[in-house]
Structures are given as structure tokens and as C-alpha cells.
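Q: Hi! First time doing this. I have a protein sequence and I read that you can turn it into a structure. Is that right? Here it is:
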Amino acid sequence: MTTSTLVLLALGALFLLGMPIFMSLAIASAVGLVFGNALPMSIIHNSIFDGLNLFPLLAIPCFIIAGVIMEHGNITREIVNVAQRLVGRMHGGLGITTILACTFFAAISGSGPGTVAAVGALLIPAMLREGYSREYAGAVSSSGGTIGILIPPSNPMIIYAILANVSVTAMFTAGFVPGFMVAFAMSLTAWTLARRKGFRGNPDTPPFSWSGFLQACRKGFFSLMTPFIILGSIYSGLCTTVEASVLAIAYALFVAVVINRALRWSHLYQALLEGAMLCGAVLIIVGSSTLFGKIMTYEQVPQRLAAAVLEISRDPQHILLMIIGVLIVLGMFMETLSTIIILVPVLMPMLNLVGIDPIHFGIILVITNEMALLTPPLGVNLFVSSRLAGISVERLSISVLPYLGALMVVILLVTYMPSIATAVPRMLGLGG
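A: Yes, that's right. Below is the predicted 3D structure, encoded as C-alpha cells:
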């Protein structure tokens, strides 16, 4: 039995036993090193240090901290007010408002569950008061929250860019068009379902007028400027991604404390705690996965996988469809960052061999992982939204099926039309 086979068998067994991802990776790697007799034990600390010594990883906890500060600093509420001025009186107006607010907030937090928590906490109770069903309110909030990992800045994009050796800025720019496509598909689905179920807009919302909309924009000017300042600093070249994440915290504190006067010390402590917890979780997984990836590379697993897949088909689109199928299944059982960290080092050599653009694949990977946020038993957005809506995850998982269909349509469009993902980075000279 080869070392790679032994490692993969151990990994599968540990997954079935319910071991955490980082422990499964570390123990499976240790089994391969002890019984394989192919690599020295010194590779353990070298690999873990290499995995942790990645400067761009600092952006992830910083964006999380900024998102929590904005949530408690009334920035999210002002974004919701502007979105409601646009579509509040339409069929399913509050549902569409939820998706638009998630799209805007996604340009701040970079987190799917964080977006659901921030926007859903405001709009799910509002939908229930207006007579929307709990299933509809929970489904539209959990589905809108998936946009949080596609609209830049995005934590999964940062991890992917590091592992695939592509520009983080290029990945961020590539996410814009697909992100707005997902937002449109979600909004259309929410509107269609609302018409079918008879959920009308909020009668208390004034009819749309440019004067009312501009007044709401003026009132929330500093909140609305948040994503433009963060992303503008990156695309203008003034800041790196990490520097922009620190700028996001500074600006969020300014708006929450000086402008809105809504932030308390307890909120700041919660923001720092959530950022530290996520940072710790990511670093543990990245460190152990780097060791796992080095063993797989030494055993030439990527090359053998590429040979096996190329015997089935050499068509890049067919290969992408097979990968999408695998990702959908894995997403039911593995957390998004874990899926990316484990699969990208194994898949990239094969994708380079058949000429698939890494930026194009990165966007497909992220959109497919949006589906993972909505598919039980792991779908984390479902758990957040079910608590806010007061219904079971089982009922909610049925209600999100139309939104999963909308996501699948976008995935297929991006797969067969690569320019959707690569046109903007190419125009900006960032690759693609």
C-alpha cells in the first residue's frame, strides 16, 4: 500500500468518525509519515510554519472585525433603509431588500454567515410582522447571505488566491460581475415566490421617488461610503488587501462612534473575539493542510489524479462540470475554507495542464461553495437563519431549493462563459 493511499484511507476514516478537519488532516499526515517511511519527520514543523507564515491571511480577521463593528454601529441598518427605499413596495419587497442589503454588506464583511446574521437580524422580524411566512423569510435571508463570499472582499477568495498563487486583487475584481448576477438571480427568485404566495410590499414604505431615495442616501452617506473606501483603496493601488482590511476597521470605528454614536465597549470586545476565533480556526486548518498537501505532492497525487481525469475527458468544460459535482457533494459535509484548502493544491496542477484559467476556476469554486452554505447537514447559513426565523433547519432546507436552482444557473453560465469572470481583471491588467 502506497503512502498516499494510506493517508487518504486514514483521512476518510477520521472524517467518518466526526473528527475536526484540522485534526483529521494532521493525524492522517502523521500516519503517512510514520508508516510510509518516505519523508523525514522534520517536514512537520517546516510545513506548518510555511502554512502559517502567510501575510495575506491577516486580512481575514480584520474584515470580520470590521463587519461586526458595522453591524453594531447601525451601519447595516442605514444600508437596509436605502435598499428599502428602492424596492420596499414591490411584491416581496422586504425579501428583495434583504438580498440587496446582503449584497452591499458583503462588500464589507467577506463572510456568508456574518452577512446572514447582520442583515437577517434586522429584516427577518420585519418580514414576519408584515405577514411573510417564516419559511420565506428564513430562505431569502440565508440565500442572500451566500453573496457574502462572492462580492469582494471575500475570505474564501483570499485563501484561494494564496493557494493558487494568483493576485488577491484579481480575484476580487473577478467577483463583481458574477456577484451581481447571483444577486439578480436571487432577487428574481424572491420576487417570483412572493407573487405566487401573495406577499406584498410594505405599505408603510413611501413610493419610490428620486428625492426620497437621495434623502435616504444623504442620511446614510458615511455608511454607504464604506465599501467604496475599502475597495477603492485596493483597486487604486493605495493599499494592499491587508492594509485595506485595517482601514476598514478604522473607518468602521469612525462611523460607528463619531457619526452614528452607536458603538459600545461590549460590541468592540465581541468584534475582537470573533476575529480572533476565526483567525485561530483558519491558521490551524491552513497549517495542517500545508503538511497534508506536501505529502500529496511528494506522492504525485495531483499528477495521478490529472491522468485519471484526462482519460475520461480532455474538454475543460467537462472537467469543470465533474469538479462542480464533487464540490456540491463535499459542500454538504465540509466547511467552505476547508474544502478550498484541501482541494486547491491537488487540483491546480491538473487545471494548469488543460489550460483552465485559475481566476475562472476560482470564481466557479466560490460560487459552488455558496451552494454549500445552503445544503444540509452542514449548511451554516441555514443554521443562522433558522434561529432568527424560528423554524427547523429541515423546513428551511426545503424552502431554499428555488434559490439553489438560481445559483446552479449562474454556475453553469460562468462555466460556459469564462469571460464573465475574467473580463474585468483582464481590462485592469490583472490577468484572466
